């Protein structure tokens, strides 16, 4: 979508106001910003009618000199937008001299839609040109399209020339009529009282949008009432820029948030008592409960053989695993491959014994819940009894401190700050105890996503200082991990603004912050920004002391199977002294089948 902030005469002739409007448009995510220009003298011949008198006075009072507009055009480009301008007669372009070519695009306003001399003169400047169609009937508009068909890089905007346009007078289906008569882009020039109708235009196929931007919708200017204030304009840009993502591909794909919710909200079969090998699963030995960690009744009925091959302890979720023979441990050659490259897999306390038996590799990463961290705080030795102390460990701090609160050690709220610091302190205690027992250092990874009111740079500096004091100085380094722009928290999506953008990389480089580089998150965040994740990776790798390796696709397809996403060949990330954790989505299910598959893919190709 191309969203153009029409500055028009809302700057009131003030370059300071124009600069504010330009900055607002850029921050909102506009594609371009444009001016209107009429020569200072001689545009209005007669001003005897009240409407003419008002408009003439407004234009005179809002006049801005060409040199000023050119300086502002430089500001527009410096903020990453295209700079445009409208002319009502081509002679006015002479006021800009040779510098007229510094504008990136030109627009012919609705009132001059049939002015072929003006249109072709502007087209002769060799830049993209936009024609607005307000105030004209269908026959005139279609005739103009036919007349200008030969002009390259031309766009047509549906427009209703009322100021403002009241709800119900938009005639939006005409956008489809325009699209049927031209291969050129078709858009919408909005003077609506309700900016939201631009979304209706998008749904009808509009891809170029022009909307007046003002500092005050209730201002005294004649365009203010048909403009958007800064907050409206931000919302307009946010929704239109997300339009293609909102529309999707036409296929119905399940996102990870849904998968988590279906697991948490759904139900499955649990053993109501011990079920011995060879026993048939039935209503007599199972009960339906949440969460959905195993098979449903529907899935069980689809099985021809309903007798389990493994014992099922009372209270255990019934899974496909119980209908299979025990799985053999990883072969020695693949174990050696993992250890040589310091490959690690995530463990949860409840599946540690099973996964450590199937994957007797040297490195494991403990992914802990806030309740498990609290249990370690109460009984460190007792909780450690379930882990193999011959392994080397890293620790992933839980994202939450309770069921409703994300971890935030810098929070102003005393409960959140102290609760977060207690969780982190316990993880450091655990790391130091594991190091004593295993003889290997235990790095710690955490997700820190909450910005301080003082802004990013201050947040990063405070976080770096805190992590050094809480971890490094005690002998257990804590590495914040790179995050996706869209995170699945509390069963829904949260758009983050920390450790997920190019501006974050700038700060990380500036302050020398060491981190855990999650490649899957990196791909997702760069895709969200429509940036090259490889370029981001090149800048971050020198600061990566721990790596999570997984493939990813789109903006929320995390941890997909290698080769199904944008990662490509992960061989380049197997080298180096860092531990590399295979963050395969739900790789722990079925006794680690996802991890097994990933190790075989990597080992078979690079072992």
Task: Give an overview in words.
With 607 residues, the protein is of the alpha/beta class. It has 21 helices and 24 strands. The radius of gyration is 31 Å and the shape is elongated. The model is unreliable at 44-52 (pLDDT under 50).
Give a quick rundown of the structure.
This protein has 607 residues and is α/β, with parallel strands linked by helices.
Straight-line N-to-C gap: 46 Å
Q: How many DSSP helices?
A: 21
Shape: elongated
Into which percentage range does the β-strand content fall?
A: 15-25%
Low-confidence stretches: 44-52
Coarse structural class:
alpha/beta
Strand order of the largest sheet: 1-2-3-4-5-6-7-8
**Mean pLDDT reading:** 92
Can you count the beta strands?
24
Residues in helix, %: 25-40%
Give the radius of gyration: 31 Å
Write the layout of secondary structure elements.
Elements: E1 2-8, H1 15-28, E2 32-37, H2 50-61, H3 66-78, E3 82-87, E4 105-108, H4 116-123, E5 129-132, H5 138-147, E6 154-159, H6 174-181, E7 186-190, H7 197-203, E8 208-212, H8 230-241, H9 243-247, H10 256-265, E9 268-271, E10 286-289, H11 297-301, H12 332-340, E11 343-347, H13 352-358, E12 363-367, H14 370-378, H15 380-384, E13 392-396, E14 400-402, E15 405-406, H16 414-438, E16 444-446, H17 456-470, E17 478-480, E18 486-489, E19 492-495, H18 502-511, E20 515-518, H19 519-528, H20 533-540, E21 544-549, E22 551-553, E23 557-560, E24 580-582, H21 589-606
Parallel strand pairs: 1-2, 1-8, 2-3, 3-4, 4-5, 5-6, 6-7, 7-8, 11-12, 11-24, 12-13, 13-16, 16-17, 20-21, 21-24
Antiparallel strand pairs: 9-10, 14-15, 18-19, 22-23
Helix pairs in contact: 1-3, 1-8, 14-16, 17-18, 19-20
